[in-house]
Amino acid sequence: MTQRDPLTVNGRTYAWPAAPVVAVCVDGSAPDYTEAALAAGAMPWLAGALARGARLLGDCVVPSFTNPNNLSIVTGVPPAVHGICGNYYFDQAAGAEVMMNDPALLRCDTLLAAFARAGARVAVVTAKDKLRRLLGHGLTFGEGGAVCFSAEQADRAQPEEHGIGDATRLTGMEVPSVYSAELSAFVLAAGVALLRERRPDLMYLSTTDYVQHKHAPGTPEANAFYAMLDGHLGRLEALGARIGITADHGMNAKHTAAGAPDILFLQELFDDWLGAGAARVILPITDPYVVHHGALGSFATVYLPPGTAPEPLLERLRALEGVEAALGREEACARFELPPDRMGDLVVVSGRHKVLGTSAAAHDLSGLDAPLRSHGGLAEQEVPLLLNVPVRGEAPGGRWRNFDLFDLLLNRAG
Question: What is the Cα–Cα distance from 129 to 149, expressed in whole angstroms?
Fold first, then answer.
């Protein structure tokens, strides 16, 4: 590894890595998951690492969904800067609801691309392909270039597009089901193999929250997942890695005492208040993988008919049981650091145990084989920041954020 000058990316300056740096985003990992696993003795490596490292808590960005937070972590800035404000949004210019997985939607550079251009060896492995192109934006592949692939499509990896061919050879595993704990295991095993074979300077590993959507902290299934994670993290450290672990969001039970999803159907409300189809409710949790959450989360944005006064509607929303916040666009974007041109006129956030839907007919819940657990709101904002090395300095602005992870790993570790 060649020592180089620090790099400034999106207004933040980062030191060149002095050892291989591995940033791990454990999807849906509320702090209670690691705490319960540690208490159960399921994470012996992490227990030792934290004794000599750092055990912090931080906030993710709201909406507490996968795409906005992964992109915040790899850019070091909130969605107001990088532009990815959901898994899904309403493109007003096109008049269409679309996935936020196109790199053209990114409005700034990633640390990964900036370091790669400066000569660093970079590797990215993500569980689901929905993130792969965003995380790989600006990377150059081919001989001696970066590596970026998804576990979901590892057997289809091509050197010219992913920097590696058929990535299943890294793990000896077949491509797991996208709805399985094994998909995350593949990500971590591939990370270990890449660190051993290619010795990247920077590596980013992003798992899936299948387990967290199904199982509460401290359950046998959850502890088994974290034991698997612990084993791979120990192997990464044994290869000389400086490791930082955070989450894109937390997770909470979102069901009634009887086990039914506890849903507030916003489109039905606005159809009643303003007329059928007059308003448009967008649920940014929506992605191609809705079996385990039914496109139900705790954050929604609403587009109103032109000339509609928002305040009377906000007052009605705030009076509803289970609504934690109802804000106009300007206030919501200032509070949550979101891009105003990609948000509706209103933002609605539901409470810890309630989710927001459009209409009952629009949500297929047939795939839910366990009481609903989901995310998106303020109740899922707290996430862990765990490092196998001590850190120095105070949190910027008085609180740590998950997108401080590379700052902690590169600038504050010692």
Answer: 8
Name the strand (E) or helix (H) holding 301. strand 299-303
Number of Cα atoms under 13 Å in the Cβ half of residue 303: 16
- Contact of 223 with 40, CB cutoff 8 Å: yes
Q: Where are the alpha helices (DSSP H) in 215-346?
A: 220-238, 266-274, 310-318, 329-336
Domain ranges of the chain: 7-250+381-412, 263-372
**Distance between the two ends of the chain, CA-based, in angstroms?**
18
Contact 388, 339 (CB under 8 A): no
- Sorted by sequence, the CB contacts under 8 Å of residue 55 that are 6+ apart come out as 384, 386
Is the pTM of the predicted complex or chain greater than 0.70? yes
Q: Which tokens belong to 267? A: 């489109």
Asked if 18 contacts 364 with a C-beta cutoff of 8 angstroms, the reply is no
Fold for 263-372, please state it.
Gyrase A; domain 2 (3.30.1360)
**27, 66 Cβ separation under 8 angstroms:** yes
On whether the CB atoms of residues 283 and 364 are closer than 8 A, the answer is: no
Q: Is 197 helix (H, G, I), strand (E, B) or coil?
A: helix
Beta strand 252-253 pairing with 373-374 = antiparallel
Backbone angles phi, psi at 390, to 5 degrees: -70, 155
Strand partners, 348: 300, 326
Counting every residue written for the chain, the total comes to: 414
Neighbours of 273 (CB within 10 A): 14
Number of H helices and E strands in the chain, helices first, is: 14, 19
Going by C-alpha positions, the residue among 24, 87, 393, 26 that lies closest to residue 225 is: 26
Q: Specify which residues 203 forms β-bridges with.
A: 22, 123
pLDDT of the chain, 414 residues: tens digit per residue: 455 899 999 999 999 999 999 999 999 999 999 999 999 999 999 999 999 999 999 999 999 999 999 999 999 999 999 999 999 999 998 999 999 999 999 999 999 999 999 999 999 999 999 899 999 999 999 878 999 999 999 999 999 999 999 999 999 999 999 999 999 999 999 999 999 999 999 999 999 999 999 999 999 999 999 999 999 999 999 999 999 999 999 999 999 999 999 999 999 999 999 999 999 999 999 876 655 567 899 999 999 999 999 999 999 999 999 999 999 999 999 999 999 999 999 999 999 999 999 999 988 887 778 899 999 999 999 999 999 999 999 998 899 999 999 999 999 998
CATH superfamily of 7-250+381-412: Alkaline Phosphatase, subunit A (3.40.720.10)
